[in-house]
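To illustrate the input format used throughout this study, we show a single complete record. The first block contains the structure-token representation of the backbone; no residue identities are included at this stage. The design step must infer an amino acid for every position from geometry alone.
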């Protein structure tokens, strides 16, 4: 399989809801357009940030149709594949392919914590059930299943597995992966507050959460890193890092959507069992967001030409 050019900034796009928690497909489409206009390189629908596991199966198909229509071929559209069984993941992959997505971001099976043999079998079976290119999402922090560099070496014979979203929060993994499998996979950082470290070690892409609220800053930081302008990248990164830390919390979805509401880019409504944050927690997160907005840098100084 020809390796797709999955490099640069790929938002893990939020799913927008009306106040009654029904899908707001028009708002989701508007938000995608806004981020494309800011210069992102692709979109990942229905990941963790997209509240995949809080949507009904048909709702997921509706979100994908809306995203594909909104993007209209301008950037690649990937979808998260986060199902409870391997068979359902294969069915989802096939249905998403029929809708016209460009690729899949496959997670381990939900709820059951598979061992290494079971994890390898899951990814092999899904990989062989589709002709679409696949980004493997490794997030042992959230899903308690770790896909090690040695396991990725085992999976290297599957041609549809082309990229890794590395979210172990262990930045050593970038070097360990390259030392173990070379450049067999495109490596993407999946932890917002490790992007500078990951790119300097060899990551070629960034699946980001806070980009939903700060798309121009995300793109500026990426461009500086890609251009090797590390001193300027560090300065922008230091401003951005208190916000990027929000991507690593259990309530990252609520925090990111609150940031979107504060920047005027979307609604903070989430779907139960998640609830919008309240009380002292809300004030704490708002203080972080508002401090960042009050000290927001002019991006003209960081322009990469």
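Output of the design step:
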């Amino acid at each position: 399989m020809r390796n797709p050019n999955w490099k640069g900034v790929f938002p893990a796009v939020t799913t927008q809801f009306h106040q009654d928690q029904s899908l707001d497909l028009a708002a989701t489409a508007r938000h995608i357009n806004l981020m494309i206009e800011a210069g992102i390189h692709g979109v990942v629908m229905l990941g963790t940030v997209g509240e995949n596991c809080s949507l009904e199966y048909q709702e997921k198909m509706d979100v994908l149709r809306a995203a594909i229509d909104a993007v209209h071929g301008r950037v690649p559209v990937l979808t998260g594949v986060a199902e409870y069984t391997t068979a359902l993941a294969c069915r989802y992959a096939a249905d998403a392919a029929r809708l016209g997505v460009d690729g899949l971001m496959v997670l381990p099976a939900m709820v059951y914590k598979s061992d290494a043999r079971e994890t390898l079998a899951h990814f092999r079976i899904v990989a062989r059930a589709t002709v679409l290119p696949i980004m493997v999402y490794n997030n042992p922090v959230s899903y308690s299943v770790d896909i090690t560099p040695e396991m990725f070496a085992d999976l290297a014979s599957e041609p549809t597995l082309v990229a890794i979203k590395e979210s172990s929060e262990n930045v050593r993994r970038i070097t360990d992966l390259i030392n173990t499998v070379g450049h067999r996979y495109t490596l993407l950082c999946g932890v917002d507050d490790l992007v500078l470290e990951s790119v300097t070690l060899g990551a070629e892409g960034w699946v980001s959460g806070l980009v939903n609220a700060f798309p121009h800053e995300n793109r500026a930081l990426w461009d500086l890193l890609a251009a090797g302008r590390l001193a300027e990248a560090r300065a922008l990164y230091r401003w951005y890092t208190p916000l990027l830390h929000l991507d690593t919390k259990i309530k990252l979805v609520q925090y990111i959507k609150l940031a979107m509401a504060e920047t005027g880019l979307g609604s903070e409504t989430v779907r139960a069992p998640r609830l919008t944050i309240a009380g002292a927690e809300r004030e704490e997160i708002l203080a972080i967001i508002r401090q960042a907005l009050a000290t927001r840098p002019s991006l003209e100084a960081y322009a990469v030409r």
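Structural context for interpreting the output: Residues 117 and 266 are 41 Å apart (CA to CA). The longest strand covers residues 161-166.
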